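Annex B. Sample input.
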Amino acid sequence: MDKITRQQALEILLKDNPQNDFCALTTYLDAFMDYQEAQSNISANGSIVMHPRTGSPISNPYLKIKSTSLKTMSASKGLLRATRLWRRASLS
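Annex B, continued. Sample output.
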């Protein structure tokens, strides 16, 4: 997934969800942006990385960020439309 900007994502969410309040949209948006960053790091570095101090293999810390972001977005799943946002992000 290539990154789209926060402004691009917000514009899509606002257009597709005129009935939702801004707070719900920005909560989803924050989680979406964190997800994008986490997925980018995981794609670049893998699920297992080396600990910076010890050099031992560890789970990539971005896996937790990705998981937390997905939970936040899932909680809003029925409240807003985000299909076009995800399509746009996957095509970027």
